[in-house]
Amino acid sequence: MFYGSIPALVTPFSADCVDEDSLRDLVEWQIAEGSSALVPCGTTGEAPTLSNPEQYRVFAVTVEQAKGRVPVIAGCGSNSTATCLEHLEAAKEAGADAALVATGYYNKPSQAGLLAHFREIAAASELPIIVYNVPGRTIVDIKAETMGEIARLPNVVGVKDATGDLGRVTAHRLLCGEKFCQLSGNDETALGYNAMGGVGCISVSANVAPRLCADFQAATREGRWDDALKFQDKLYPLHTALFTDSSPGPVKYAMSRVRQGFPTAVRLPLTEPSEASRQAVDKALEHAGLI
Fold first, then answer.
1. What is the pTM of this model?
2. Which of 10, 84, 258, 272 has a CA-to-CA distance to 248 between 20 and 30 Å?
3. DSSP E strand stretches across 103-243
4. What residues act catalytically?
5. For the chain, which residues make up each domain, given as ranges?
6. Which CATH number applies to 4-223: 3.40.1780.10, 3.40.47.10, 3.20.20.70, 3.30.830.10?
């Protein structure tokens, strides 16, 4: 259902508002450059700092601008199951094609709690659901056996795996089935992830380098592993530079370097990247041939 290079879109701000013109321009550019789907309001989209009306407006603008040319996977995660259900309803009303749902953060639910959470939302929503497992941010990890149970829910279609554990791909294939859509949540290990059986990446770097990321994913999908390795080497410094300060500060700075005038503002408690981070981003952009 979903594959290839899927940017976790940044949310551009103007003053203290969402900059809808810049968002629409970003969506157009991403589609023109070969991105396979779009994810608004994920971690990179600063969803925790958006009000619910802002989040739902970002859903709507992204869907409106995409015009059905690529799927839109709305970021609907929350540490409250009830709030997650509200997000899912808004995503459906906006016309999103699927929802990305992160595990409950801060609350530290048990495996039983995680399973109950996904059972509740899957029963209440008709949208296809991609589970987002990112223990580095949520402090909880969906174990492979639990994922196997969650994958049995009829509208749970895949996972964005940001554990960094490449062995999970095989474990998930065995427990969830070969049709379960496995997407990497880490750009730097996406090559190995796809070699193990993954089919794409929900990507931070694709905000900045959508064509390179799309071509990289196409190479892996077509089994051109030598080409994929060349893309990996070209992109790897960017993958790491974008996390030399709190994301998405470095990403938005990089966007301003490749898309003149792109707004770099982030919302507190995030701040714009340090000088050292900006220098690392500039060097990586030069290495990738983007500036």
1. 0.96
2. 84
3. 129-133, 156-161, 181-184, 200-203
4. 132, 160
5. 4-223
6. 3.20.20.70
